[in-house]
Amino acid sequence: MINATDVSGFLGRRRGRSGPDWSDWLAYAYLAMGVLVVLLPIFWMFMSSIKSPRALVENDPRLLPYEQLTTPSQDGARRLGVFVWTRPDGTQADVAFVGPRGINARVFDLARPDEVIEVPRSQLTRKDIVQPRFENYTEPTIGSTQSRNFNFLRYFWNSTFVTVVATLLTLVVNAMAAFALSKYKFRGRDAMVIVIVSTLLIPPTVILVPLFITVSSLGMLNSLWGVIIPAIATPTGVFLLRQYMLTIPDELLEAARMDGASEWKIFWRIMLPLSMPALSVLAILSVMWRWNDFMWPLIVLTQSEVFTLQLGLSTFKGELNDNMHHLLAMTVLTLLPVTLVFVVLQKHITTGIANTGLK
Amino acid sequence: MADVTAPSPAGPARNPVGWLWGKLGDALDGPFGALQAHIGANRMAYVFLLPNVLVFGVFSFWPMLLNFYIAFTGGQSVILADRPFVGLDNFRELLDCPSWLDPKTCPVSGFSFWTGVWNTLFFAVVQVPIMIVVALATALVLNRDIRARGFWRAVYFYPVMLSPVVVAVIWDWVLKRRGILNALLEDGVGAWNWLMSFYVGRLSFFLFGAFLFDCLLAMVFGRKPNSWSNRTRLIAAISLVLIYISVFGTAAGSFTLPEYRPINWLIDVRSGWPMFWVIFVYTWGHLGFYMLILLAGLQAIPKDLYEAAEMDGTSRSRAFWRITLPLLMPTMIVVLVLSLIRAFQVFDEVYVLTGGGPGQATKMIIQHIYESAFIGDAKRYGIAAASSVLVAGLLLLLTLAQLAATRKKAGG
């Protein structure tokens, strides 16, 4: 039996010893298992996304994208599936399946295409080869075949537009407010800080209806601006930036004022560059929020021309269709930008979020 | 953005983004400078605040007030003037049931509301403790002096970066009737049965032979047979268990599992699996965030405390209970309240994964609000707003609890 001491020994820190002991191996086993649980589903979806539609419909559970080998028929009009024929004596030959006859199958040996023979179907096994199908990716994006159902490029552009514009606006608007609240003395400043931070108490999910009515009366339904504007002033952002700006010495600003710089120039040329660490944390958070946002776009955007990627994907998933191969490929494309950003900025993101405790 | 480090005198060639950014600032300096000349430098603070206050006001404060008003109105119009005042009708429709515990006894809206409430409560009460325990265990393991900590931390955090829609598509695909989970389970059951039917018998006799051989060695080398080594005891125990299994077990077939029949994880109504997977998938997607916060909390604990404890001969388990847990408590409380608030607002993952189904089995309260207002022919904004008021009350209590906890953390 594992007792409490063992468990807390395993979970506790281990210091000042040489060489790994059993609890180290247990720790690595635990981590490896977790990594499997995290990455295996994503990997499985990626492997599925390069399978042929037929393999997906047949629900082939194999990891690799197997597909049956085909060969042209004798007259060249059709493509025939290739099987491995195991003769009763154990020898094998590749044969092409021409058609059924009773319980037998009419086939011809690939080596002798002119001679159609009959063999029991039980002696045939499918000949599969590994063949990734990258058309799953190209068809809905640069091809024209399925773009009616899923206009990937349009959704991608909408998502990118929302993410970039909203992030830039979020940074500027919140930095301006944080600047005012940290570097000026005016009446009601502290009350203002309290009011802004207290809006953290309003969960956006429970003001859906009035927010929708406000946005619709401003004529911003089915417009990307209706998605962008309502959330650019985040109390999180103001709070984060203000705390950082408070640490920037006032003497810098005074020196600039002496040199005749305007308040705006002080903000733009001194405050913003000096606040880069805090700004980049907010930028990362904002990109994450906006790219992955689902609920608010779902309410504001109802026409498919203005859909973001997340909306397009969820709608496409909801439709009963046989385009699973496209859905999976587009899901991979949707998670790709976030994944790349994460791989590049991994340290920034994890330390930034750990320090602020915000998502 | 990353290039805006300093005023760049080098021109567009060296740092085009920084140069452009600087030019944009200079262009805006015209109007702002003129404004400053007009109102004076000190009042520029109000100008800097204005955009933020405007957006806050229009898109947070005003809707919050509006919500209370809409909760008392009926009809289907989005134009406020066209909405008749109906008093407490909406609340009556939601709350006027013979029993809140049994949503079936309620009118339609009340049924949907209370189903959502109970599902959300169940979700939160089960999901939050599980997630905190797993996140804490993972953070503790990552806080050991292990190799490649950055890699493990990044992998565990990665799902947090994925959008709820992507998470739902991934798991929907894994949990299909002919998906990889069922395939793995089928293979696992098959392998187990194969092992049971063929190998347990042989293995047990092999081990029993090893046991006899061990006894023989002990006798040859002069040890008394009754002073068995631990290895001998282990081998003896395992072989006895396996002999028992092979004699009584396989004969009765009690250790071979029945043939595995694939389960429709997300559709099977009576099994409770859909709720299980909703909880699992949500935890999968958010675990890394809480793990990260707990890890930061752990790393903030001064190391000399552990060194001092070790000098005093304190055991590791005692150090865990007496140092780690108490010092982590403030972080734990923040994590608890934060995850509770999030759990009560769960919508995205569940909506895309199960759509609230099968039936109403995974319908959450936010989905009820969303569907009352935006789905179907009858757009019942009043009902949705009234539900929001009730939910907001609950969330407000939780948030206040969080603030109190945060203050305690700052104070301690």
Give the overall form of chain B.
extended
Q: Write the CATH fold name of the largest domain in chain A.
A: MetI-like fold
Rg of chain B computed from alpha carbons, rounded to a whole number of angstroms: 32 Å
Oligomeric composition of the shown chains: heterodimer
Look at the structure and give the mean pLDDT of chain A.
83
Give me the strand/helix succession of chain A: HHHEEEEEEEEHHHHHHHHHHHH
CATH class of the largest domain in chain B: Mainly Alpha
Number of domains of chain A: 3
Number of domains of chain B: 2
> DSSP strand (E) fraction of chain B?
under 5%
Number of helices in the DSSP assignment of chain A: 15
Average pLDDT taken over every residue of chain B: 82
- Choose one word for the global shape of chain A: elongated
Q: From the helix content, strand content and strand pairing of chain A, which structural class follows?
A: alpha+beta
SS elements, strand count of chain A = 8
Describe the structure.
- The complex is a heterodimer of chains A (359) and B (412).
- In chain A, 57% of the residues lie in helices and 11% in strands.
- Chain A is of the alpha+beta class and 359 residues long.
- Chain A folds into 3 domains: 21-65; 66-130, SH3 type barrels (Roll), CATH 2.30.30; 141-356, MetI-like fold, CATH 1.10.3720.10.
- In chain A, 39% of the residues are buried.
- Chain B is mainly α and 412 residues long.
- Chain B has 2 domains: 89-177 and 266-411, MetI-like (MetI-like fold), CATH 1.10.3720; 181-252, no CATH class.
- Chain B has 14 helices and no strands.
- Chain B has helices at residues 16-39, 44-71, 89-95, 108-142, 149-161, 164-174, 180-220, 230-252, 273-299, 303-311, 316-344, 348-353, 365-374, 381-411.
- The longest helix of chain B is centred in the middle third of the chain and has 41 residues, at 180-220.
- In chain B, 35% of the residues are buried.
- At the A-B interface, helix 1, helix 2, helix 5, helix 6 and helix 7 of A face helix 1, helix 2, helix 4, helix 5 and helix 6 of B.
